[in-house]
Amino acid sequence: MFSKSIFLGTLFSFIVLFISAWLFYSFLAASYFEAHSNMPPSDTMSIPFIALGTLFQAYAMSVIFAQFHKESHGFIASGFRFGVFMGLFVGFGIGMLMYGTSELMDLQAHLVDAAWNILYYGITGISIGVAFQIMRNKE
To answer: For residue 83, how many C-alpha atoms fall within 13 Å in the half-sphere facing its CB?
Structure first.
């Protein structure tokens, strides 16, 4: 459950998840989501908890990818495909559940967030695939 490949995949994907979410939600799309939110903006973010949650996501994705990868496909292609499925699960699956239960944002914002999640997790999947490829090349 913890190999060098999973460790490196966790590290790479943590960096991608943490930095790209920070750039997207804090800079690129901040005003968009503020305009489509049903709640007032909050300045209280707990970076340690965000980092911890991101670390759990990175580890879980790396472990699942280790089971998901098929030898017949390259690591990068498998990583992207895996990430897209994760993006569909989080973006559309959990996003629509959140919209149906809490309406923190309007439907348009949830759909934009879902599309972002597909790209976001797809890129994260690539980072995991790269980590596994690096470890495979060292063997």
So the answer is: 27
